[in-house]
Each structure stands twice: as structure tokens, then as C-alpha cells.
């Protein structure tokens, strides 16, 4: 159990670090609207994926004065909240040697696997996806 | 359980587990009570090759993670565009091992 907790924490911290680096890279060196993408889906199909625009949304949350109208994907707010909360929670868990984040993660996983919740989530993501395609992100 | 039944199980299901797990599985199955055989026979395992194909085709949407039951990581992969493409590529190499690990967990739940 402890090894699976540490494995999950390790991966989440790693991906959070990559996320922060990516956001800072976008803020410092490129324009969010430059069209540069790492998304394999978009490169191959030339269509936006459900999470297209998340980086732009996070950038516009950091610099609201520049582009308040550019909250392009509502999932960006969710990702920004996760990037703020998850690393802190994980680090506190590791420091005091608890597994509250891991337990909560398992609970949320079970909740999302319930058919009504799963179907609603799929519909919501499909809606965001269609919206992204219509907006032409 | 009879050695013949155990070997038959391993012959038909060996590909669903890591090679180093096969010997412990065999030992554990040999010690197992005969009454557990019907339950073991009905277990459904995920095929690592199928999951790899899904990962190659729809990995950036996290479908591979959803399929093996890692819903949390699947959501993470979906809303970050496959972890900016990095996670998608890492998973091409890791997903078969993860699938075998999930299969092992499913089997262990019956064996315990």
C-alpha cells in the first residue's frame, strides 16, 4: 500500500513540475496564441482535443489584466486548482507520513467509476470538446 | 490444486502477467483449495497488447488508463492533453507493465 502511495505521489509531483515548467515557459518565452503545440492529437488530426486551451486559460488566470476574455477552456480552471492544491497536499502528506491524499484519491476514483457519474462526466467532456471545435482553438 | 489445472491456467493466461510473477503464481495456485478453481477460471484479465494499441491510438485522451481501471490518472491524462504529450509517450512504454500489474492485483484478490 505504501509503495503504491509513493508511486502515485512521485508521478503526480513529476507531472506537476512539468506543468509548472510548461506554464512558465509559455509565460516567459512564447505568446500563448502562437499556435505552438505539443499535443499529438492536434498535430495528427488538426482538431482541438477536449483539453485544448488549458495552458492559455492558466496563462490568462496569471495575467488577467492582459487577457481577461481569454478563458478559453473551463477545464483550465480545474487544472490550475489541481496544480496549486495537489503538490502542497502531497508534500504535507510526505512530511507527516500520512496518506490522506491517497485515500481521497481512491475515494474520488470510486466515485467517478459509478455509472451515472461516469456518463455525466463523459457528456460534459464531450460538450467541452464540441465547444473547443466550434471555437476553433 | 492439481498441477495439471495450474499449468493449463498458466499456459492460457501467462501472457497477462510479468514473467517473474509466473513462478510465485504457480506455487500459490498449487497450494490453493480446489473450491477456488471455478472463481479463478471466471476471472477476466486485460490484454496488455490491446491496451498498448489503445494507448498508441487514443493515449492522449487517457482512454488506456480508463480501460485498466486507473480512473484518476485517466482524468489527469485527459484534462492535460496526455500530460502535454510527454505522459502519452511515457505510457507507450509503461502501459503493458501497468496492465500486467493490474491483472496481478485482480488475481491476488482471489488468491488472498
Features:
heterodimer; A: 137 residues; 6 helices; 72% helix; B: mainly alpha; 8 helices
How does this structure look, described?
The complex is a heterodimer of chains A (137) and B (112). Chain A has 137 residues and is mostly helical. Chain A has one domain. In chain A, 72% of the residues lie in helices and 0% in strands. In chain A, α1 crosses α4 and α3 (54-62) crosses α4 (75-95). Chain A is globular. Chain B has 112 residues and is mainly α. Chain B contains eight helices and no strands. Chain B has helices at residues 3-13, 19-31, 37-42, 48-58, 63-67, 71-79, 81-84, 86-111. The longest helix of chain B has 26 residues, at 86-111. Chain B is elongated and about 50 Å long. The two termini of chain B are 15 Å apart. The model of chain B has no long low-confidence stretch (mean pLDDT 87). The interface between A and B is medium-sized, with 26 and 21 residues.
Query: What gross morphology of chain B would you assign?
Result: elongated
The secondary structure category of chain B is: mainly alpha
Radius of gyration computed on alpha carbons of chain A: 17 Å
Largest sheet of chain B: none
Would you count the extended β strands of chain B for me? 0
Strand content of chain A: under 5%
Task: Count the beta strands of chain A.
Answer: 0
Mean pLDDT of chain B: 87
**Poorly predicted tracts of residues of chain A:** none
User: Roughly how many Å apart are the termini of chain A?
Assistant: 42 Å
Describe the global form of chain A. globular
Total number of helices of chain A? 6
**Whole-number tally of structural domains of chain A:** 1
- Average predicted local confidence, pLDDT of chain A: 83
Topology:
The complex is a heterodimer of chains A (137) and B (112).
Chain A: H1 2-29, H2 40-45, H3 54-62, H4 75-95, H5 100-113, H6 115-135
Chain B: H1 3-13, H2 19-31, H3 37-42, H4 48-58, H5 63-67, H6 71-79, H7 81-84, H8 86-111
Helix pairs in contact in B: 1-2, 4-8
Amino acid at each position: 500500500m505504501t509503495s503504491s502511495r509513493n508511486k502515485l505521489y512521485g508521478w503526480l509531483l513529476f507531472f506537476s513540475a512539468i506543468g509548472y515548467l510548461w506554464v512558465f515557459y509559455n509565460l516567459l518565452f512564447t505568446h500563448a496564441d502562437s499556435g505552438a503545440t505539443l499535443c499529438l492529437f492536434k498535430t495528427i488530426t488538426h482538431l482541438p482535443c477536449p483539453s485544448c486551451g488549458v495552458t492559455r486559460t492558466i496563462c490568462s488566470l496569471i495575467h488577467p489584466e492582459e487577457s481577461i476574455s481569454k478563458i478559453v477552456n473551463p477545464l483550465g480552471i480545474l487544472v490550475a486548482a489541481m496544480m496549486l492544491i495537489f503538490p502542497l497536499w502531497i508534500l504535507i502528506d510526505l512530511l507527516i507520513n500520512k496518506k490522506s491524499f491517497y485515500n481521497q484519491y481512491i475515494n474520488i476514483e470510486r466515485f467517478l467509476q459509478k455509472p451515472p457519474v461516469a456518463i455525466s462526466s463523459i457528456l460534459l467532456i464531450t460538450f467541452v470538446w464540441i465547444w473547443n471545435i466550434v471555437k476553433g482553438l | 490444486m492439481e498441477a495439471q489445472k495450474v499449468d493449463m491456467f498458466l499456459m492460457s493466461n501467462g501472457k497477462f502477467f510479468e514473467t517473474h510473477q509466473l513462478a510465485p503464481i504457480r506455487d500459490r495456485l498449487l497450494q490453493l483449495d480446489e473450491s477456488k478453481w471455478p472463481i479463478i477460471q471466471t476471472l477476466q484479465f486485460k490484454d496488455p497488447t490491446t491496451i498498448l494499441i489503445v494507448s498508441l491510438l487514443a493515449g492522449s485522451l487517457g482512454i488506456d488508463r480508463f480501460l485498466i481501471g486507473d480512473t484518476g490518472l485517466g482524468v489527469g491524462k485527459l484534462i492535460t492533453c496526455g500530460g502535454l504529450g510527454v505522459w502519452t509517450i511515457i505510457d507507450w512504454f509503461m502501459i503493458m507493465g501497468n496492465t500486467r500489474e493490474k491483472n496481478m492485483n485482480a488475481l491476488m484478490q482471489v488468491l488472498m
